[in-house]
Amino acid sequence: MKMRNLNRRSFMKHTTAIPLGLSAAMPLLGQLPVSVSATAADTPKAPLNILLLLTDDQSAHLECLGTQGIHTPCTTALAEEGVLFVNAFATAASCAPARSGLLTGMAPHSNGHWRNTNAPRINSPDVDFTRQGRFARIEQVGVHEDIPTLVEILNARGYETAITEKLHLSPPWKYPFRQRFRAGSEVDDNERAAARFFMGCGDKPFFLMANILHPHRPFRRHIVKTDYPPVDPNRIDVPANLPDTPDIRRDLADYFETVQSADACAAAILKALKASGKYDNTLIIFTSDQGYCYHRAKATAYDLGIRVPLIMAGPTVRKNHFSRQLVSHIDLMPTILDMLSLSIPGTVEGKSLRPLLSDGQNAPWRDIVFAEHNSHGPSPHEYYPIRSAFDGRFHYLRNLLYDQKRWTGDMESLLKNDTFPNELLFAGPTDAFQRRSWDNRSFEATIRAKEQFPDQYALLQKTFARPHEELYDLHTDPFEMRNLADDERFKKQLLVLRQAVTQWMKDTNDPGIELNRTPRRTS
Predict the structure, then answer these.
(1) Are 345 and 334 in contact (CB under 8 A)?
(2) CA Rg, the chain, in Å?
(3) What are phi and psi of 143, to 5 degrees?
(4) Sign of CA dihedral 272, 216, 323, 64
(5) Cβ–Cβ contacts within 10 Å for residue 223, how many?
(6) Which domains does the chain have, with CATH numbers?
(7) Do the Cβ atoms of 37 and 321 come closer than 8 Å?
(8) What is the distance, to the nearest Å, from the Cα of residue 121 to the centroid of all Cα atoms in its chain?
(9) Dist. CA 243–CA 171, nearest whole Å
(10) Contact 441, 435 (CB under 8 A)
(11) Cα separation of 422 and 379, whole Å?
(12) Can you say how many angstroms the Cα of residue 307 is from the centroid of all Cα atoms in its chain?
């Protein structure tokens, strides 16, 4: 299949959907090989290894996704070796619930891990990861006890399971990785840590969840030395929902530097994998837990908060292919189990992507992909449940507490204090707004530029006073600036997606606004 270079809007008009990079008009996937290659003939005789490369707070921004001004050769090469999904979505746009969805194959409201939670550090004493540890007392939110996790299943099958850098999951004993170790943020440290692990596994199959610290805020703290060229603020494309000011460009350039840092760390881990001799028998998955940290992104259900990069490569995976199918992180657990010829638990809500990885199935994979947000952290101020549905063109959001949590105050007043008011955290986490601790310049820059960029300022205001329903046409409005929910021309699309969300909530026993009062099942 051949692709022309199209600008972003044209691409969305003529295809099912596209990756949402930062450009409002840019070539997409124009240089990515898209040949239809045959599947490898034979399944490897040895048990398949699994390597999950998981970056932190990265929207669908990669060179192979058409993002301008960055250099990410590792993921470009990986995409050439496997399948690049351009419509991949996290289950939620906060770290812990997103990761729980990935490791259970379920929506966070279904598995019980609906918000960020208190968890032990990766190098905490072993007792902290058990039912006898202190986190059994201080954290009551987490995945239900009767739901099997991917880690539990692979442990039972004799896999050497390991995780690096951060757990950020609850309760910790439901994710009993056999090894937990630091890998650091530097490129060489990641390579050394991975090499020790791969060597130590011997002939035992492994599942390594390699958590890459980049590109979490503060960006400058997560920029590390690489061989990549520095990002030029003048060469990037500022998304239409942000004002095009020098401060915004510098902030975005820092973000892209950390994306490059993540790519370099991924390259180092893959270098260690190749040196170990295990590369050809490993299923490699590269993705991010959620979208980047800006307002109307992280800790919301807007597209930039839930759309993530996803590349899969390995034996039996077709090469040089991209897929527009709607896929979700809930599909990763069943995919891994299917690739290992293991039974998929009945609790799993996703489905195996194996057909898309092998024969490139062209029939619609799913008509709608769902996502959610509930609360970024434990504070009740942050509780703001949202349900999301995307059909490949139209994105629908339902704000369940729209009439109870609203603020229409003076935006400039928020710049007078060093800290962001707790009562406004329903609009997003502190790192999406606060400059002092998180070095976020976008919030202040948007307010300062309100005269020059009134549409971006008005959009920021709406973040604090959202309507019950929102509907966006991503073909014509990729940065979700015009809510079409009250537009009679789109009534049909609104009704279809409204009903889809209602049915999804019913099918998955979603407590809705009562989720924060729903106890974790412990038996």
Answers:
(1) no
(2) 22
(3) -65, 140
(4) negative
(5) 20
(6) 47-366 (3.40.720.10), 372-517 (no CATH)
(7) yes
(8) 21
(9) 41
(10) yes
(11) 9
(12) 6
Could you give the maximum distance between any two Cα atoms of the chain, in Å? 65
Cβ–Cβ under 8 Å, residues 339 and 316? yes
Amino acid residing at 91: T
User: Would you call the peptide bond into 243 cis, given omega within 30 degrees of 0 as the criterion?
Assistant: no
Q: What is the DSSP code (8-state) at residue 464? A: T
pLDDT by position in tens, the chain (length 523): 333 333 444 434 433 433 333 333 222 333 333 333 334 344 446 799 999 999 999 999 999 999 999 999 999 999 999 999 999 999 999 999 999 999 999 999 999 999 999 999 999 999 999 999 999 999 999 999 999 999 999 999 999 999 999 999 999 999 999 999 999 999 999 999 999 999 999 999 999 999 999 999 999 998 999 999 999 999 999 999 999 999 999 999 999 999 999 999 999 999 999 999 999 999 999 999 999 999 999 999 999 999 999 999 999 999 999 999 999 999 999 999 999 999 999 999 999 999 999 976 666 789 999 999 999 999 999 999 999 999 999 999 999 999 999 999 999 999 988 788 999 999 999 999 988 889 999 999 999 999 999 999 999 999 999 999 999 999 999 999 999 999 999 999 999 999 999 999 999 999 999 999 999 999 7
